[in-house]
Amino acid sequence: MKSLNKFLALILSKIIRIFPSRKKIWIIGASRGEKFTDNGAVLFEYVLKNFPEIDIRWIINKDCPEYSKAKNTGPTLARGSLKGNLYTLLADVLICTHSLPRDVSTYNIERYESATKVFISHGIEGFKRKIKRHAETHKIYDLSVAVSDFEKNIKVKKWGLDEEKICISGLPRYDKLTEHRNKKGEIKNIFYMPTWCPRYRKKIDKPFSRMTKKDIEKFKKGKYYRSVSGFISNTDLLKLLKENNLNLNVFFHQSIHSFMKEIIEASALSNVNIIPYDSDIQKNIIESDLLVTDYSSVCWDFLYLDRPVIFYQFDQKEHLEKIGCYLDIPDDLFGPVTRTPEETIKSMTAIIKGEKSYKQLREKSVDKFFKFQDDNNCKRITRCIIKADKK
């Protein structure tokens, strides 16, 4: 059926193109067609509201939990359906947050030669150097979003992208953060978001249901699990949370979320909650007062909000050797860097009690990592897309 849909869409697109009088078509997708959230969703809503002359549609896998959420927001296409395939082939603009082949298309990228291809990203580049072949894949885009000259230089000097194809605008989701900046008040909600990198954190190549007890025990002996679970279940941390009436909300990377949720006994840990995978992360960020992470780009959301960040980098040496970093660590970081659960809890305690705020570090970093600090990022991006499409 999928092959038939693709074939019929190809034929129909050739017929429809004979009659060119139609609206501009923009297609936007994200997160492998699994989610309606983040930068893509914010830009989608902005264009819907402000550009009625553009026929913009969200494309998403029909069997995913967020399909109805997307459909209730605006025109939605089922990825891989006849209509979905047809619209991608007719599109003037294709927009993605992760990867065009995974977020939007079902055809080889060559089929979209006439479309303006746009990468708006899901986060800021900095913590992870891309291997050469991954950097090369970004050359398919006619436009790539950056938040600063610092990030633009990564894409131009390190990835080899054309300077004229970089739009320094800011991320769409930051338009929703601006009103929440400089929030004052005591710390109540702590957000812990460790990343996942199978290149050195030992790849999990089986679904949880197929893993044997031996497989699970082997993973539990690894540095990643011991460091993450050792922090979450640390008795001093649990005491700190309980005595100060704090919540620790934990969110794992999509590649390992279901697995970690199964093997960590969070229900037995007072004041600790593993956030469901389909949660609104933007909402969790806004409601959080302190972030603990290792290399997640969500740290820049907290910098933008002027809220403290602790960098719990328990495998910093391995990360720098095997992945590499565009940042100068630790000099470019805007919070304390810790290596153990004990060091992390000590830094948390100092921040919670008001002994340290690291505000000067954040003030020093904000101008370097953000060119704009307003709510006009979607406006700038849309202008860049329209200009690129005219070319």
Description:
The chain is of the alpha/beta class. The protein has 2 domains: 2-177 and 374-390, 3-Layer(aba) Sandwich (Rossmann fold), CATH 3.40.50.11820; 182-369, 3-Layer(aba) Sandwich (Rossmann fold). It is 40% helix and 14% strand. The protein is built from 17 helices and 13 strands. The chain has helices spanning 2-16, 38-50, 67-73, 82-90, 100-103, 132-137, 149-158, 213-220, 223-232, 235-243, 257-263, 281-287, 298-304, 316-322, 341-352, 359-369, 377-390; strands at residues 24-29, 54-60, 76-78, 93-96, 116-119, 143-146, 166-168, 189-193, 247-250, 272-274, 290-293, 309-312, 337-338. The strands form 2 sheets. It has a 7-stranded parallel sheet with strand order 3-2-1-4-5-6-7, with helices on both faces. Strands 10-9-8-11-12-13 form a 6-stranded parallel sheet, with helices on both faces. The longest helix has 15 residues, at 2-16. The protein is globular and about 70 Å long. The relative contact order is 0.13. The mean pLDDT is 90.
List its salient traits:
seven-stranded parallel β-sheet, Rossmann fold, six-stranded parallel β-sheet, alpha/beta, globular, 17 helices
Condensed summary:
This protein is an alpha/beta fold. The protein has 17 helices and 13 strands.
Uncertain spans:
none
What overall geometry do the principal axes of the alpha carbons give? globular
Strand content is 5-15%
CATH topology of the largest domain: Rossmann fold
Highest-level CATH class of the largest domain: Alpha Beta
Compute the number of structural domains: 2
Major sheet summary line: 7 strands, parallel
Radius of gyration: 22 Å
Number of strands: 13
CATH H-level superfamily title of the largest domain: CDP-glycerol glycerophosphotransferase, N-terminal domain
Q: What are the secondary-structure elements, in order, as H or E? A: HEHEHEHEHEHEHEEHHHEHEHEHEHEHHH
Task: Specify the number of helices.
Answer: 17
